[in-house]
């Protein structure tokens, strides 16, 4: 009888081998449910099958979108008046994960040597929620854009108003909207890019106030959550009723753009606007 050359590894050896397997080696797309090696998502972090854009940090988005980006108001963060320990701990963790001090990164970017004011919400910072400091940073950005006569690009990715800050978070909707209106009255361009997810008070305010509203493929866009809607209307909504493609069909979005094409599309829009302004 031939003796097998295969030697069964011991329990300790198996454990050692398992420990050497890197985390997150595989990914599953939440839209088409394709499973693939994480490296196939590329630097854009998109599904190779359906183009869904996975959630990325604000700093990564700035890096892959703009030729250069200079952050402003980096020191603005959650006011000290909010003393709840669990909330403070959540904010502290978010700062470490994202590398920013609030749920939006604001600054001046360049695309083909054109300057643009840019706000990028970070879904990893307390779900990109709209807090009082978030609203302050976005408002200041619009005011700077208005003063310097710059076009504005806003990337929204948010779970809505930050419940830990109560009424103060809801007031940011009106505060930012006033700054958007002042920018609009100055005849300046405002482009919104809806990213996954854009919901709640952000959808109900500045996310839907752009002159041009773009969306990434299959991004979740809505106001209330699916379960809240189901409990309210006592019916089950269609499967994709809050996906960007459905929102486009109903006229709330101007175009859906693949993340890999976004930089070029924004450059083209800013260039057209610049020519329009030059021609009077």
Automatic annotation (TrEMBL):
Membership in a protein family: Belongs to the AccD/PCCB family.
Pfam families, per database record: Carboxyl_trans (PF01039)
Gene: accD
The keyword S-adenosyl-L-methionine belongs to this UniProt entry's keyword annotation: no
Co-factor: note: Binds 1 zinc ion per subunit.
Subcellular compartments: Cytoplasm
Main location: cytoplasm
Organism: Lentilactobacillus raoultii
Residue ranges constituting the CoA carboxyltransferase N-terminal domain according to the UniProt record: 25-280
Assembly and interaction partners: Acetyl-CoA carboxylase is a heterohexamer composed of biotin carboxyl carrier protein (AccB), biotin carboxylase (AccC) and two subunits each of ACCase subunit alpha (AccA) and ACCase subunit beta (AccD).
Functional description taken from the UniProt entry: Component of the acetyl coenzyme A carboxylase (ACC) complex. Biotin carboxylase (BC) catalyzes the carboxylation of biotin on its carrier protein (BCCP) and then the CO(2) group is transferred by the transcarboxylase to acetyl-CoA to form malonyl-CoA.
PROSITE patterns xref list: COA_CT_NTER
Gene3D superfamilies: 2-enoyl-CoA Hydratase, Chain A, domain 1 (3.90.226.10)
Protein name in the entry: Acetyl-coenzyme A carboxylase carboxyl transferase subunit beta
A single GO molecular function term of this UniProt record: transferase activity
